[in-house]
Amino acid sequence: MAIPTSVASVDPLWVHRDAIVVDGHCDTLGEVLQGVRRLHERSTTGHIDLPRLHEAAVTAQVFACFVPVDEYRRGAARHALQRLDAFHRALEEQPDPVHGLRLATNAADIRQAKATGQVAGILGLEGAEAIEGSLELLRCFYRLGVRVLGLTWNFRNEVADGVSEGAQARGLTPFGRQVVEECNRLGVLLDVSHLAATGLRDVLEASRHPVMASHSNAAALCDHPRNLTDKQIEAIAERGGVIGVTFVPSFLVHPGSAASLAHVLDHIEHLLRVAGVDHVMIGSDFDGTESTPHGLEDVTRYPAITAGLLARGHDELTVRKVLGLNFMRVFEQVTGG
């Protein structure tokens, strides 16, 4: 399909609905597991459910399985499996599977979802705590459909150290290097958000495939420990990876300031300048943050990002890359299809 480049001739809503739109990170499965929300029913609380994903014309959503720290003592794998089960039960119970939710394990599944009007759900683990030091468990999670692995949350685990470990944080452990190698072999996309700088460096050196920072912003605009320096942004891009701009207010603006859609667009534009147009995406962290930027109160506001980027003078191809094509390139290279 020929994509026009004249911004003046483009209808933002048409572009948004025609594009492949991917959100690289949400924590909605925790709400589903707790019974706060049914994935296939529209809710007046939280940020994401299937009807609102459809309204927002989101093609694919990465559903993270986060294990809260207080669940470690009862078994991180157990809790992650419960979140995966919540997703699979939602698949089984949805009233209209033909136009509803489908599991996506490769890029072809996402394209098929776009063609049929479905939403593709991609499963991820937010932190390797869930594999409990076992490559066998990693392979079992893969068989259940997991295609994204966040190597750490904020703290130390068997794989590496998270950003909260501070200046003395270590990089990949010997087991961590085995995990990177096995994910490369299986076709699991490595997510480096939450990794300490030493771990990010080691992963970029060890991985044969590009990586994703699913929900990390630019430290140059907001100096938060979870944000990436320009050198880190460049290093991820040089190895073919992609970085998802997140909506968490504390990652967008300094404490005491009010976050808005404009700040999200500022971070996207900074990443476009530093990384290049092929290495930027969106990773909202919806349902993983209590507050949201003004203008991005829930997933239904996604078209405002498309309109905002076009209004700032970005051509249609660049906007489509940010919305989903950049993720698709990396996901296809890692998982196939």
Task: Explain what you see.
By secondary structure, the protein is α/β, with parallel strands linked by helices. The chain has a single domain (7-335), classed as TIM Barrel (Alpha-Beta Barrel), CATH 3.20.20.140. Helix content is 40%, strand content 12%. The chain contains 13 helices and 9 strands. Strands 1, 2, 3, 4, 5 and 6 form a 6-stranded parallel beta sheet that branches. A 3-stranded parallel beta sheet has the order 7-8-9. The protein is globular, with a radius of gyration of 18 Å.
Structural class: alpha/beta
Q: Mind summarizing the main beta sheet?
A: 6 strands, parallel
- The helix fraction, in percent, is 40-55%
Name the CATH superfamily classification: Metal-dependent hydrolases
| Shape annotation | globular
Overall mean pLDDT? 95
Question: Can you identify the CATH class?
Answer: Alpha Beta
Order of helices and strands: HEHHEHEHEHEHEHEHEHHEHH
State Rg. Answer: 18 Å
Can you count the beta strands?
9
Portion of residues in beta strands equals: 5-15%
The CATH topology is given as TIM Barrel
